[in-house]
């Protein structure tokens, strides 16, 4: 059986990263230009990594699935990015950011990785300010901070409700400079379809030109995957339509472990589902929970009238409103972590207190904030978010409370990586949301941007050198090698098989079926029987897909339906692995909530004596059950406790 070596450095927690950097191997400047690195993805993780590696002197090939890196899904992030600068003088520190993050992940993340993330976060803010990112500032000119869930300090830096966009433009400007210098060769509208392994090491990729349909080969000394998460396995999610898990899944099929696949995040603040023809969901920033108060009616009768449309929310008196998060979690109130807030909303709606026509919504109300601060202050803080909500719902949130409900947002699971961000395949690295390493069972808000930029700017540029230092004598690879032939043939055969099905069902209709299975059985509340049913239904759906999918057009041309079909084939298999992992983990932790394992108050009930490990799944072949390997999570510096956000 394979052994899990996470390569965590020895020594005190606060000194591990410094000790690692002091003793790692380096590549001297003259040798860096002899080494090629493929970076797949141009979101915050991919763009920052490609720009940093090129700035250091490496030759970088960067692959972008969109027509421009500016369209990466990182642009959609709204609320902010965490760092322990303690500008508010409210008691923050690197250790407190580390502890809040590991506690928020329900003690299912690696100590050393999380501490390093907290440690380098302050440098991210300095880097982005130097790039010109227009963070919000206080009256005196200092950078402003606001609060996010799971913390009792204000540590979230933001640029109105478009922080992701501004950070991505900063990374994009750094990347564009390297493209202009010729240090980065940019491939836009290319999608990676396989990774090429030569003598046990990642040495290149096979990618499809999405404009021409041509299958092309690319070789390098190392490959970096920064392609985001797999949340679109649920069909309806807050992810962009092009977001997919295919690159990560192909790495898994070539020997990279897939870690904690069941750990998917439900975001509590999304615009509710409107109908059958909806293709995605829209996130309303967690920052809104700073000033917005979440409530449902106290009386079931009022809830029924709201559902029927015979009562307006403004007609319900203050004393008849149940601010249930403030009631249940007085210490954190509306700023509890996402998994806690999501389950609380589901519990109220399941009890019949939902407030829209489907009964699957709660109110996010700004009337108190408007009375306290004035409409102009609320507008300055959240105006673009309010505009977005009104455009989608045709409802004015300054006058009527927003309606929100939980939805799939982020995936904490992903490709397993060690402390160096290298997968179990030598030379293959994974960064940002594509890896599993920093968030455990639940990600705190404003930590995704932090991890993406930490990995790209401040971690990978060091750790990848430790691998490349002994690759200097390795000559550049020819893409005519038999391993490239074999990988390309495998892709071409797969595409030909898909195109020859000529069935009766569209890709989207099959994807919706997948989404229903995933949400019903692998969603917010999971149980043994449902997970077993999901695995059976997913196997049946896989057969249905490969026997009845309809893909119009030609393979050697621009073909969006073929793109979607290739991704859906992977999503179905990812869904099955998620269900299998959720079935194996007989406990509740963070976003993984097994109904059989909860406290009398309905909170997640962990079983640290049995499940304090990372689930690492190893591929065994088509239609073969994967093998589960376990990386123990031995905590040296933190004592695991039942999470408490009540006092």
UniProtKB/TrEMBL annotation:
It comes from the Bacteria. GO terms for biological process: anaerobic respiration. Gene3D superfamilies: FAD/NAD(P)-binding domain, Fumarate reductase/succinate dehydrogenase flavoprotein-like, C-terminal domain, Succinate dehydrogenase/fumarate reductase flavoprotein, catalytic domain. Its cofactor is FAD. InterPro entries: FAD-dep_OxRdtase_2_FAD-bd, FAD/NAD-bd_sf, Fum_R/Succ_DH_flav-like_C_sf, Fum_Rdtase/Succ_DH_flav-like_C, SdhA/FrdA/AprA, Succ_DH/Fum_Rdt_flav_su, Succ_DH/fumarate_Rdtase_cat_sf. Its EC number is 1.3.5.1. Residues 36-449 form the FAD-dependent oxidoreductase 2 FAD-binding domain. Residues 511-645 form the Fumarate reductase/succinate dehydrogenase flavoprotein-like C-terminal domain. It catalyses: a quinone + succinate = fumarate + a quinol. SUPFAM superfamilies: FAD/NAD(P)-binding domain, Succinate dehydrogenase/fumarate reductase flavoprotein C-terminal domain, Succinate dehydrogenase/fumarate reductase flavoprotein, catalytic domain. One of its GO terms (molecular function) is electron transfer activity. The active site is at residue 338. One of its GO terms (cellular component) is plasma membrane. It is a peripheral membrane protein. Keywords: Cell membrane, Electron transport, FAD, Flavoprotein, Membrane, Oxidoreductase, Transport. It is found in: Cell membrane. Belongs to the FAD-dependent oxidoreductase 2 family. FRD/SDH subfamily. This is succinate dehydrogenase. The lineage of its organism: Bacteria, Pseudomonadati, Bacteroidota, Bacteroidia, Bacteroidales.
